[in-house]
């Protein structure tokens, strides 16, 4: 089996801040990888380098066999990689359905009819078909985030990146978004998820990565990570988030 | 299940209807102004045609230089936000010069100095009063519009750009389909404000002997030695024009809000 993501010795600086310090990671197709770690540890920055929203400074990244270097193949990679943001980032001037069909029509050159048919299917999949003609501001946070997931799926990506998808949600709405993500994980999608939702990690993750100081310090299964964290930093982190 | 995509009224269509309405309204307004001024006693009534002629020039000057000013503003505003310093620096320079010098000096420069400069490089261009005024006013309001448009583009949250790019949209597609429609809603009120200011600033064109409303008024005033009724009339006509203009642009703003929510 060939890896879908291969990152080798990835570095990233923001001015004088060394955010990523030589990250290495290989992800196989269909794997669900949950990334945790204290804030400022580089976990969000790392997944943002995978579709070059924050281009890496040194090292190599290959997604589905396409090397991420320079501009030429950037759009090709972004079509393979879907991303869901903490703050949803839906387009407020477009309806829910138009949010979903924009990229298929503009980038994939799909016909409007096909794109809308597919868009409605995706909305059904995330359970909000009846909201298709509303504007994002008319939806709850949980509904907006589900639209954002459907919007990313409309491009039929091979990998989905989630950057703290439930951190901006009311507690009541977290579950509806996690349920959609669990369904997606079971369907065989390759997923990299930055989150603090430990229940989600335990239930669907194949691997847990613990980031600290700009690098992966643990790469293990959820069971191993909870029962037997290797690093002191991971132990203190776990005790803090599990005790609250 | 039949679910049609929401079809909001097409923005271009509503804008076209709005333009037709505005033109018709201004025709009616001019008819009304000529009628009212014609009924007034001396010194206004017998010279009503001169006032109406001046008002028409003022409005035409505002609309034409306003339209060019929007074009200038869009180009310079976009250039100001460009990654390329070759675009960014000239745009900043242009804004710096225009905003840092008086409009009156700019009008005099375009009318008196520009033809001489062009002649010295072998270009024999004759600009009449009206064209000179259009050029100076368009460049002036264009610089102010450019700053409004730059601020509007930058006010669209960065996450919008990131979401669009992560979906594979190109930079241009992102600009046209995601950033600009949102910026349009932000920039409309301040652009309207600039247009109303332009209508009033166009009175400075009287200094290059363009017979617009202010010059018409001051001619009548010095002929008749009756500044009170004459200048009151001039002010009243300006007020009428800006009021009607504001009424229409309020409508336009409301329409844009409905379309883009």
How do the helices and strands line up, and which of them pair or pack?
The complex is a heterodimer of chains A (about 240) and B (about 260).
Chain A: E1 5-14, E2 17-27, E3 32-36, H1 43-49, E4 58-63, E5 66-67, H2 74-80, E6 81-84, H3 96-106, H4 112-125, H5 141-153, E7 159-163, H6 171-186, E8 190-194, H7 198-204, E9 207-212, E10 215-220, H8 222-227, H9 232-243
Parallel strand pairs in A: 3-8, 3-9, 6-7, 7-8
Antiparallel strand pairs in A: 1-2, 1-4, 4-5, 9-10
Chain B: H1 11-39, H2 48-80, H3 85-100, H4 103-120, H5 129-155, H6 158-166, H7 171-201, H8 213-224, H9 227-260
Characterise the protein shown here.
The complex is a heterodimer of chains A (244) and B (261). With 244 residues, chain A is of the alpha/beta class. Chain A has helices at residues 43-49, 74-80, 96-106, 112-125, 141-153, 171-186, 198-204, 222-227, 232-243, and strands at 5-14, 17-27, 32-36, 58-63, 66-67, 81-84, 159-163, 190-194, 207-212, 215-220. The model of chain A has no long low-confidence stretch (mean pLDDT 91). Chain B has 261 residues and is mostly helical. Residues 1-8 of chain B have low confidence and may be disordered. Chains A and B meet through helix 2, strand 6, helix 3 and helix 5 of A and helix 6 and helix 7 of B.
SSE sequence of chain B, one letter per element: HHHHHHHHH
Number of strands of chain A: 10
Strand content of chain B: under 5%
Element order of chain A: H for helix, E for strand: EEEHEEHEHHHEHEHEEHH
Shape of chain B: flat
Oligomer: heterodimer
The largest sheet of chain B is: none
- Using DSSP, what is the number of strands of chain B? 0
Greatest contact between two chains: A-B, 36 and 25 residues
Low-confidence stretches of chain B: 1-8
N/C terminus separation of chain B? 26 Å
Give the overall silhouette of chain A: globular
- Which class of secondary structure composition applies to the elements of chain A? alpha/beta
Q: How many whole angstroms does the radius of gyration of chain A measure?
A: 18 Å
Mean pLDDT of chain B: 89
Measure the end-to-end span of chain A.
Answer: 41 Å
Order of strands side by side in the largest beta sheet of chain A?
6-7-8-3-9-10
Percent of residues of chain A in beta strands?
15-25%
Number of helices of chain B: 9
- Average the pLDDT over all residues of chain A and give the rounded result: 91
């Amino acid at each position: 089996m060939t890896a879908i993501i291969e990152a080798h010795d990835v570095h990233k600086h923001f001015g004088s801040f060394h955010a990523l310090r030589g990250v290495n990671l290989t992800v196989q197709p269909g794997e669900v990888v949950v990334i945790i770690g204290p804030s400022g540890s580089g976990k969000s920055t790392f997944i943002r380098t995978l579709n070059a929203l924050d281009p890496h400074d040194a090292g190599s990244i290959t997604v589905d066999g396409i090397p991420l270097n320079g501009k030429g193949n950037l759009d090709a990679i972004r079509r393979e990689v879907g991303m869901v943001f903490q703050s949803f980032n839906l387009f407020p001037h477009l309806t829910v359905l138009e949010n979903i069909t924009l990229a298929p029509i503009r980038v994939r050159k799909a016909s409007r009819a096909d794109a809308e048919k597919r868009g409605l299917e995706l909305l059904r999949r995330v359970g909000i078909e009846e909201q298709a003609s509303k504007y994002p501001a008319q939806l709850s946070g949980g509904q907006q985030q589900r639209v954002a997931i459907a919007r990313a799926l409309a491009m039929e990506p091979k990998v989905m990146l989630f950057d703290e998808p439930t951190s901006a949600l009311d507690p009541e709405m977290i579950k509806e978004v996690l349920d959609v993500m669990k369904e997606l994980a079971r369907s065989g999608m390759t997923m990299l998820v930055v989150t603090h939702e430990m229940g989600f990690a335990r239930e669907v993750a194949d691997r847990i990565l613990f980031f600290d100081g700009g690098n992966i310090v643990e790469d293990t299964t959820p069971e191993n990570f909870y029962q037997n964290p290797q690093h002191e930093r991971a132990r203190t982190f776990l005790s803090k988030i599990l005790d609250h | 299940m039949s679910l049609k995509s929401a079809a909001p009224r097409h923005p271009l269509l509503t804008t076209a209807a709005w333009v037709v309405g505005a033109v018709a309204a201004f025709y009616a307004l001019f008819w009304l102004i000529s009628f009212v001024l014609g009924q007034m006693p001396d010194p206004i009534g017998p010279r009503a045609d001169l006032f109406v002629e001046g008002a028409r020039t003022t409005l035409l000057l505002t609309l034409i230089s306003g339209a060019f000013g929007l074009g200038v503003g869009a180009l310079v505003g976009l250039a100001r936000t460009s990654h390329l310093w070759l675009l960014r620096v000239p745009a900043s320079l242009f804004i710096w010069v225009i905003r840092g010098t008086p409009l009156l000096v700019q009008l005099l420069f375009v009318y008196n100095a520009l033809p001489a400069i062009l002649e010295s490089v072998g270009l024999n261009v004759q600009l009449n009063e009206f064209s000179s005024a259009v050029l100076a006013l368009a460049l002036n309001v264009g610089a102010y519009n450019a700053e409004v448009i730059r601020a509007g583009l930058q006010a669209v949250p960065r996450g919008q750009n990131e979401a669009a790019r992560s979906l594979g949209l190109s930079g241009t597609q992102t600009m046209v389909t995601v950033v600009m429609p949102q910026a349009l809603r932000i920039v409309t009120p301040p652009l309207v404000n600039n247009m109303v200011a332009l209508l009033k600033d166009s009175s400075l064109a009287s200094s290059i002997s363009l017979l617009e409303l202010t010059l018409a008024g001051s001619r009548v005033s010095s002929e008749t030695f009756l500044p009170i009724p004459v200048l009151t009339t001039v002010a009243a006509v300006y007020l009428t024009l800006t009021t009607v203009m504001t009424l229409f642009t309020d409508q336009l703003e409301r329409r844009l809000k409905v379309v883009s929510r």
